[in-house]
Amino acid sequence: MLRIKLDDEKVTGLKRAQQRRKKQLMTLRIAEIMLLILICGAIWLGIRHFTQPKVTKMITITAPALIIRQAPNSSKAVATVKSGTEVGYLSTKNGWDKVSYNGKVGWLPTWLIKSTYDATKATNRLAEQTIVIDAGHGGVDSGALANNGNYEKKYTLQMALALKNQLASSHARVIMTRSGDQTVALASRPKLANKRGASLFISFHFDSTPVANTASGFTTYYYHKASKSLARTLSQSLNPLTLDNRGIDYGNFQVIRDSTMPAVLLEMGYINDYTDYQYISSSSYQQQVAQLVYKGLENYTTN
Question: What residue stretches are annotated with the SH3b domain (predicted)?
């Protein structure tokens, strides 16, 4: 009986030793797991620290309200910020500031930050557009001739400036390829638009025929398929003009061919047609074209 009792105690002791060993192993395993979690967390924080964009300064929004966008264009909204809000400045691209706000990163149009624009009341995104207006010809390039000897370059500039002035109230960022009678190479016009991150490109010209007074009306040209919608919208908007709307058409013109954004070339009448020229040279016609193009741009950016 004594031997059996001793054997039982020995077995019990072994079981207890095994249980202690299991507990020690479990404690060690938990400690290893916790250590691994801590190491992974430290690595993640380190990576986050070195990969997160650095805020170099704070910007105070003075516009009534702006929308932070996902990309430096009129893209998906990230957040809305109101007057007095501070955002962290990260970098600049295509006239947009990359900012950090409430743990989110996005883009704001630089030209709107200190404006009077209220994005919460806008029905379109015209204010967020960078629009390049191209007055055809200029300088040594006179363009086509009117029957009285006046140059096309004179009237393309007048019409381009009329549109620029019309757009002033829209808050849009407007860039001119020329603002006076200077020579501007064809290739440099779309190059400027591409470099400045333009979202829309509009070039003004006037048609001409070999024989005077044999054609009349205006045409909207596009080159890339992506520009066709803009061409159609602007053409429809120009319908109220007295001159005949000859519709939209494909045009292999360098200024719209080399542009990477939606681009159109507007031939706003035949300069060597007597009737058309009366309109082309009229400031009231130029203002009406500017107003109708403005309306077309509003319609286009609504969608």
Answer: 56-117
Q: Which residues are catalytic?
A: 267
Q: 173-176 and 130-135 as β-strands: parallel, antiparallel, unpaired? A: parallel
Mention every residue, 6+ apart, whose C-beta is less than 8 A from residue 243: 216, 217, 218, 268, 269, 276, 279
95 has a pLDDT exceeding 50:
yes
Burial class (CB in 10 A: 0-12, 13-18, 19+), 216: middle
When pLDDT is averaged across residues 165-183 and rounded to a whole number, the result is 97
Closest Cα to residue 260, out of 170, 197, 303? 197
Domain shared by 113 and 253, yes or no = no
Contacts of 178 (CB under 8 A, 6+ apart): 134, 135, 138, 157, 184
164, part of any domain: yes
Contact 238, 296 (CB under 8 A): yes
Q: Which domain CATH number covers 65?
A: 2.30.30.40
DSSP classification of residue 249: E
Regarding whether 170 and 279 lie in a shared domain, the answer is yes
- Indicate the pLDDT class of residue 52, thresholds 50, 70 and 90: low
In contact, 158 and 283? CB cutoff 8 Å: yes
Euclidean distance between CA atoms 264 and 256, whole angstroms: 6
Instruction: For residues 83-110, give the mean pLDDT.
Output: 97
Q: By residue range, what is the domain housing residue 227? A: 126-302
